[in-house]
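Bumping with the actual sequence this time:
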Amino acid sequence: MSLWTYSVRETLRRPGRTLLTLLGIAVGLAVVVATRLTIDSAHRAYRDLSGGVGGRAALEVTAPGLAAFDGEFAPALAALPGVRTVIPRVQGMAAVSAGRGSAPVRVLGIDPACAGPDLPVRAGRPLDGANDALLEADQARALDLEPGMTVHVWAPAGSAELHLAGILEPRGAATTLGGVLVVPLNCARRLFALPGRVTSVEVVLADGADTATVLAAVTRRLPPGLSVQPPGRHGELAGTTLEATEQGLAYLSAVALTAAAFVILNTFLLSLGERRRQLAILRATGATRGQVTRLLLREALLFGMAGTVIGCVAGVALAGTLLRLVGQFLATDLPGLRLTVGPFLLAGLLGPGTAVAAALWPAWRAAHRPLLQELLPRRGRPEDPLPFRVCVAGLLLLVVGGALSVALCRDWLPSSAGQVLLTPTLVLLLAGGVLSLPLLAAPLLRLAASVPLGVAGTLAGQQLGRQRTRTGLTAGVLFLALAVAIGFGHTLRGIVRDLRHWYHRCVVADFIVRGSMPDTSFALATALPEALAGEVAAACAAAGVDRMSFLPGRAGDLPILVLARTFAPTGPLPLDLREGDTEAVRRGLARGEVVVGTALAERLRLHRGDTLTLATPHGPREFRVAGTATEYVAGGLALYLDWDTARQRLDVPGVHVFLVHASPGGRGELAAALKRFCADRHLVLQSNAELGGLIDGLLGRVAGVLWALLALAFVVASLGIVNTLTMNVHDQTREFGVLRALGLNRGQLYRIVVAQAVLVWGVSLLPGVLGGVALAYVINRGTAAWTGPPVAFHLDGLVAAVSCGLALVTALVAALIPARRAARLLTVRALQHS
């Protein structure tokens, strides 16, 4: 019999333990795969917003803030080596209205001669007339539009009616967020009030052309103020919006994998303790220590590979749910999940690698035990303690993780380094805590045993005390789940609480009027004519109508969002200020100064009175900082600018949001008038309460899914508890037989095993609570390097209580199967057990 055959046979001999171990690996890897697939799909969807016509490889010439410019230089670029063709374009967001409501679409204005086969028409005909339009198939189906119908469009120049000439196949650039509405170039210029100008020039490369060479040649030919780069600028702001979600999912992935590693370690310690005599016989019959070590590592590799396959399949299923969640967070329908090789390659490395790494020490220890001692009966003898050097290694991990935590909390590291190091810091703290816990297992067990559990508790405590290494590692996995639940629960509740405060402080209008619902990154926001403000005020007798626009920009190397809006000279200032008093900031905004979001201020090290340089269509412009404010839009990489200043110094395409205020006592009358006004003009109307309810519902769904992901850590912990209690029952089989012979009934044996689970929970309780609070503080302070000043840290008793209760339920549920097995032992067979 080969060693491979022996490994497989030994694995199949214990199907329950094998399944639990595989599930531990699979759950950890499923979170990793689902996270990477979800984030990659979301980023790719936004990058498609500025893809080439028909998806062709191209470079893109744009102005700062995606402003319009004169495209007369474009024909000269077509003569450059490596350039196949040059296509001037007008791009922008518009709202398309139909019987089923309004939806944002990306308008792509091109010369109809440039479309050809790159924009295949599924139904209808290609562009021909001046007011023709082609709409992507999915969007046409969503709006119930067919070729030949009239399409009502809102754009910065006002409303227009276009003839839907045809429906596009969903391919290439058409498979993007919100769909694509393709119109002739001159039609797009009318819609966006850009006579003779364009918003981008697409440079299509010839086959075999070197992108870097062509990019350098194009750069030398561009007028001042323009830049050329691969398509993707539209996705940059969405990337900043996704940043916090991506970081949070990365933390959960790392934690789930760490928990799985300790489940594997505990499982191998249990398995090798049970197989001591078998391994000793192998060595006595000629197997070398190296062969035994390789045999056991091979078994770990088998576990890792099988768990990887299960985890990848589960990860794809979980990614579908996460993608829907991220779509809800971004307030848009993301395209379907796109499977890429990267996440599966990562899982292929992490799964077997984690399993083998976790099995290294148990395998080495099993191969180097004294041979004769292993052949002797071991009934009733305590298990070997965890080597002191392993506990020292755990303490060392805690010290290193603590030092990194201090550096992160004190802002001693650059923000980019902080983003990279926070995840490994959390892993070091958690892994160090688990490895150090066996040092405290005995005193913590005595403390937990002080709870009156009767005879069952006494007998349970004796068994756990004999197996301190097993008890410490199992409690360590539960400690990890408890600390993560408390740490992330604090963070999640704090962010939700702060976001609600920010919303009520900054969104003070009674009603919101817009062309269509945007996404949360505002890459899909539709601009409307500024003149609508006067029409709303006159037709609806509104007390005031504020205007607000979202302009992409750059400050240094960072993509930012400029929030241009009107600020009333009196009344509450709709900003959640961190630096600066209300009246001074109001005067500064009127003078052309800016209020910077806290995350942007932290990244650029800006404070009140500093100067910020903003790239504009007219060249770099400097703005004095009037103050800083909490801002959640664009991940906090945003700044506020007075409307009149923005009109003078930037290229404002129109108004994205009208904020309508009612006069005292006139809210009901205004609501009725606005409803009629918006229905007649195909505009979207929301009350403040409706928008608040939408945000609360979104936060609730996001929080619910994140809590569900946190619960996976308890699922992994339960697998470790089941393994440990099952092995304890195996070790105590003869002891249980003696107890049954002395008169204990099945229910009492059941309670002994349940009491073991309760005591394991008790050992993990105090370290878990303390570790969770510390973890919450590190996350709160450590993320300030790139999110701005942290949300105020408060101890949340509800989160701690719920997490502790969930940990207890996990331990009790995990004890059900081992306890049932103990209660069903036959007395005679138990007494014969050796």
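The tokens above came from a reply further down the thread. The CA atoms of residues 549 and 814 lie 55 Å apart.
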